[in-house]
Amino acid sequence: MKRAAIEEFFRRLSAADPEPKTELEYGNPYTLLVAVVLSAQATDVGVNKATKGLFAAADNPAAMVALGEATVRDFIKTIGLYKNKAANVIKLSQILLDKHGGEVPRDRESLEALPGVGRKTANVVLNVAFGEPTIAVDTHIFRVGNRTGLAPGKDPDAVEQVLLKKVPKPYRQHAHHWLILHGRYTCKARKPDCPACIVRDLCAYPAKTTAEEMAKGRTAPEA
């Protein structure tokens, strides 16, 4: 995708949703961190259901450690990999208490040193909690980047690097939310809603769906 098209791509997404937000529910940087850790291989809706009770019981590292791993497991047992995730939540909470004064660190190295926290999770926390212009590439952004021609790449890290180079600076703060939401609700994996897409004319995807195909329930080929 050429520079002018990229500028227009994000201008339209920005005009449609000037202040996009994460759909994960959280109250502070710590609960955001925990929610993102829990969201791996799980939906935001499912995580929000699990964390409603959990965060009411513990919204800081000390309270979470006091709950204990078994209790955390009971709160989050409806989401995938809940046993490993509960263990990671307790471990990262203890590290925050021991090494960071109970606060979520604002640097990538410290975040990625926490159990259950990879580059994507660190990017989300840096962006949402601290306003850093990072781009967290999940399955939606990976698909949109490759399908549209915006940021082709063989893996999430490659797509992230292309986006960091190509996304115009004024749009970088919200870019990953626009792309996630676009992939979640419009540029969907199995049935992209091309007729309703506001950037359809800028997209390089050769197998765009038509209104008739959408009505028939056509699914998309691999992007």
H/I helix tally: 12
Question: Which structural category do the helix and sheet elements fall into?
Answer: mainly alpha
Terminal CA distance = 15 Å
The protein's oligomeric status is: single chain
How helical, in percent, are the residues? 55-70%
Tell how many strands the DSSP assignment holds: 0
Largest sheet: none
Q: What's the Cα radius of gyration?
A: 19 Å
Strand percentage: under 5%
Average residue pLDDT: 95
Low-confidence stretches: none
Net shape: globular
Which H/E pattern describes the elements? HHHHHHHHHHHH
Observed structural traits:
globular; 56% helix; single chain; mainly alpha
Plain-language structure description:
The structure is a single chain. By secondary structure, this protein is mostly helical. Helices cover 56% and strands 0% of the residues. It has 12 helices and no strands. It has helices at residues 3-16, 29-38, 44-57, 61-67, 69-76, 82-99, 108-112, 119-128, 139-148, 156-166, 175-185, 211-216. The longest helix is centred in the middle third of the chain and has 18 residues, at 82-99. The mean pLDDT is 95.
Mind sketching the topology for me?
Blueprint: H1 3-16, H2 29-38, H3 44-57, H4 61-67, H5 69-76, H6 82-99, H7 108-112, H8 119-128, H9 139-148, H10 156-166, H11 175-185, H12 211-216
Helix pairs in contact: 2-8, 4-6, 5-6, 9-10, 9-11
